Amino acid sequence: MNILAWIVLGLIAGAIAKAIYPGHQGGGILGTILLGIIGAFVGGSLGVFFSTGTLALATPTFSIPGILVAVLGAIVAVFLWNLITRRSAV
């Protein structure tokens, strides 16, 4: 059941991050879910690091602050994905 919650949180966070982030992002629904799940882990891990000072792989809870942390992490993931997949204009 916990994995299902991560998928739902990833979908919500990825959709919000793609709506907030400027420009066009491809990837479809599966890419949105994957970037959202990655972002949730990044945001959760950074939240644990900033609050406790230790680096641990964590995911935020399914709450308003948890969604905000996941969205911030998903924005970072979308930014990094755009850096990796950016094509040079020739």
Automatic annotation (TrEMBL):
Keywords from the UniProt entry: Cell membrane, Membrane, Transmembrane, Transmembrane helix
Primary location recorded for the protein, binned into one broad class: membrane
TM spans (from-to): 29-50, 62-84
Cellular compartment(s): Cell membrane
GO CC terms, sorted: plasma membrane
Regions annotated as coiled coil: none
Topology versus the membrane: Multi-pass membrane protein
UniProt cross-references to InterPro entries, sorted A to Z: Transgly_assoc
Pfam annotation, one family: Transgly_assoc
Similarity annotation: Belongs to the UPF0410 family.
Protein's name in the database: GlsB/YeaQ/YmgE family stress response membrane protein
